[in-house]
Amino acid sequence: MKTKNRLFVIILSIMSLMACQNKPASITQSTPINTPDINAEISDAILVTQAIPSEEVSTKKLTPQEVDNLWRRIQMQFSLPLTNNKAVRQQLQWYKKHPKYIQLMSKRAEPYLYYIVQEIEKRNMPLEIALLPIVESSFDPFAYSHGAASGMWQIIGDTGKRFGLEQSWWYDGRRDVTASTTAALDYLQFLHKSFNGDWLHAIAAYNSGEGRVGRSIKKNKKLGKKIDFWSLNLPKETKSYVPKLLALAVLLNHPKEYGLHWPVLPNKQVIGQVNLDSQIDLALAAKLADVKLKDLYKLNPGFNHWATPPEGNYTLSLPIEKIEIFNKSLAKTPKKERLMWTRYKIKSGDNLGTIARKHKTTSGIIRQVNNLTGSYIRAGKYLLIPIASTKLSDYQLSADSRLKNTQKKSNRKIKTTHIVQSGDNLWDIAKKYNLNYRSIAKWNGMSPTANLKLGKKLILWIETKNGKTLRNITYEVKSGDSISRIAQRFNLKVKDVIRWNSLQSKKYLKPGQRLQLQVDVTKINS
Question: Which is the catalytic residue, given 66, 136, 311, 324?
């Protein structure tokens, strides 16, 4: 009996040992098997394991730099704490309701994102920051906010200058992809250090300024309250700004849960920079690089007009496959042939400013080219002036063309102009025409806080209501005018003109006298 028992134990041990040797390498104790037929799953796994050599089974874990998808590269390096609170959930719902937004934004981001990711990695910053241009501008390098912020990183003028961005008539570094990225990351690192290594504080301060966030932290400390981002009393925009960024990180981590699809972006360099040693017409540059002029502007949104600046060191961003052909073509093009020139005969009454505006250049450039030490010019003499090599309308994404596009006529609105008078400001002009002063700033490509120059023409769009387009105007009385004639000319009632201006009906008007009129501009009698 003992011998039989001993034999039975030996047989069981051998069977158990054989079972251990045949256990599939692809299944571990932590692998959940959600099936009622466990044995069938194990048998299939054994067959697969036996068919594949062991060295092929163990796949190499790819680094973020080795994966195919650039969005995946970003997602693999997230490091900010994700908070599942109401503010983040609200932003997630917005993105969920607008799935096309992710598609549009990805298409815009493709030329620039690889460069941005590389720069963030070099600085060892959280890769969530690569999503910040989505929150700021939807990756639109031409974005210009009513708060005077510009470019995909939405940098305001003073901050741009503080971090070394040139802003001139020819060029705005806040829109330059490489220059603005450097400045934005410099600023974020400065804020990160200022707020003792708290990235949420730094990101909030990027939106509303370090002073505003700093004061809120100081106040909470004084009151014995928490000082984390979620506990601070900040502007409404900033309170939603950080959750927007964190929500994007959640969406990139779990797109399927929100019914979204992030398009695959190649994880490779798509643009590069070439150094320019002279000013060049952008139409010529596009021709030398064999790219469309519109596409060249999209890669180089920092250039305001038809050419690169006349002085200074600048780079041109080009598709990586076009750099060699551009460099070869540029080397064969003498510097004097990189611009077109015209000889302009000075007329009586001309000055450098009017001549420069007429030729879409600056008086400084005219002085430089013609070796003028001052602004004195003489009628009958000639000036050499650089000009665009093709129609200005062909430079579709220049600052002038973009502004004109903004000012295009829209439904139920008509275009009018207001000439700036002494004492005018945007607020008063907006009130006079029953408009929003920020809209006026947008239509004219300026900051809402900008000073107005006397005589400047402002484009206004007046909305029509019930077939009428009413606006308040100031009319200067001319010799021979009477209240009835003015009323007839502007299709008004005499009693209204009298009432609006507190006039006496039997009293004569004086030439030069100013009257306030409410006019339907669609029915002015000429």
Answer: 136
Does one domain contain both 113 and 250? yes
- Evaluate whether residue 19 is within a structural domain: yes
In Å, how far from its chain's centre is CA 274? Answer: 23
Count of structural domains, the chain: 5
For residue 73, which of 38, 29, 112, 114 has the smallest C-alpha distance? 114
Rounded Cα–Cα distance for residues 515 and 503 (Å): 10
Do 243 and 175 belong together in one domain?
A: yes
Question: Residues 304, 356: one domain?
Answer: no
Which of these, 305, 291, 286, lies nearest to 386 by C-alpha position? 305
Q: Tell whether 361 and 295 lie within a shared domain.
A: no
Residue ranges of alpha helices (H) inside 209-235 are 210-222
Our answer to whether residue 237 is catalytic in this structure is: no
Torsions phi, psi for 263 (to 5 deg): -60, 145
Residues 63 and 450: their CA atoms lie apart, in Å, by 49
At what angle are helices 177-194 and 210-222 packed, to 10 degrees?
Answer: 20
The DSSP H or E segment spanning 113 is: helix 99-122
- Which spans in 25-131 are helix H? 38-51, 54-57, 70-75, 86-97, 99-122
Q: What would the pLDDT profile of 338-360 be if each residue is shown by its tens digit? A: 998 889 999 998 999 899 888 88
- Domain holding 377, by residue range, is 340-388
The last residue of a domain, from among 207, 232, 258 = 258
Q: Are 40 and 83 in contact (CB under 8 A)?
A: no
Whether residue 105 has pLDDT greater than 70: yes
The kind and range of the H/E element at 12 are helix 2-21
Side-chain half-sphere exposure of 61, counting CA atoms within 13 A: 1
7 lies in the same domain as 27: yes
pLDDT digits (tens, 9 = 90+) for 113-152: 999 999 999 999 999 999 999 999 999 998 876 557 899 9
